[in-house]
Amino acid sequence: MPLPIVSVSQMRTWEERTWDQGIETATVMRKAGDSLAREVLSKTKRGDLIVLLAGKGSNGGDARIASRLLPDRETLLITINDPFEAVRNIEQALLKSPACIIDGLFGIGLNRDLDSGWLHIIEMINQSGRPVLSVDCPSGLDADTGLVRGRAIRAQTTITFGAPKRGLVLDKAAEYVGRIKVAGNIGLLEPPPEADEHWLTGADMYSLLHKRAPGAHKGDHGHLAIIAGSAGYHGAAVISARAALRARPGLVSVFTPSYQAVAAHLQSVMVHSWSQECVSALSRSSAVLIGPGLAGSNVDSSLKTLAHNLWRESVKPIIVDASALDWLPKDAGPSGSPRIITPHPGEAARLLGCSVEQVQEDRVKSARDLAGLYQATVLLKGRHTIIAQSEGPVLFNSTGSAGLAQGGSGDVLAGYLSALMAQPSFHKRTIQAAAYSVWRHGLCADSLDESNVYWGMEDLIQELGRNEFI
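Structure (tokenized):
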């Protein structure tokens, strides 16, 4: 099961329930410190200087434990009781250009604005330009609201314990939290707190794909139809089709106003020039993706009519992306027919009639509102892409990075997701297909980021085809 995303009070209740069952605080803290040390070791190399800043609370205790578990690293532990007295020691440590700073100053319990001494220390750390790993929550950040209490550490990574805290996943906290890593197994009792919002992990993913039967043929694995690529935007059709192939449907067909441009770039995909006669060919598909590259002022009105009618009448899975989102009726399709929309925040704002800032201020509400309006599963793209329906749990994706903020990444996701939905094994598992698609899409981007070379959409598509992620 995905991890719950919890409030501070839920986390405290979970801890108290654990202590009441006789598990010692020190036992859990040792496991947390060990998880912290493993994360530090993964981010540094032999001989690196690690500066650990330990406050008076449990976060400081985690940092102190970790300082003893860093073999072959040079460690400098600074325990801070009075921030004014610690300034000189921190200044001297920063002059040594540490490979990593461990922020164990404050934890999730911070509920007041920091005084001037702490503000000065946080500013020193932020100005140092050194990578920071925050323990449980960046110091100075409210773990419930994501708001800054005067000033907050800007971490490259935050390792949080037990479960993600609500404030860490909010868009407003992104520049302070950095990458979220969750150390879930630190000895707290099961079950964790109940929650409406959940964090997807790799452990949730590996059982989602069905193994293919030895005697299977292409007809057993669905036929995806992609309606995409108006004049000047044919690249989106090509990208979505190539990404779709990585999900291994039986067949992929593209219906496009830009036939020659699209056909010239695709070999394993059937390409059709768009006309009204294509409607009968579409009937042979098992799922339809509408939208990639259907932009510009000269979009054939018949495409808009088709999108409208498919949404209202087809019993097949219909996935809609990009400009085609504006063509949809606010109606439900036939009962039990899967409907998925994949807006980015700008598109979501347009559909909801509000500003992008309002969408980002409460992404969960925005996603749920869209799900209710269109009676659809919504993938609200962005940092921690949200998967939501009008009712039930909301899922936050744990993978991906700002590397995906480039043209075409949404087309890759739409193509891959739609090709899963074309396969009969996913027709009644919309949430699972959506979760696997966004998680794997983000994981591939993370893998490419680690290569430290430029990467684009072709690289992302190739990475989607690597078996180790299945």
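The first strand starts at residue 3 and ends at 4. The domain at 218-469 is CATH 3.40.1190.20 (UDP-N-acetylmuramoyl-L-alanine:D-glutamate ligase).
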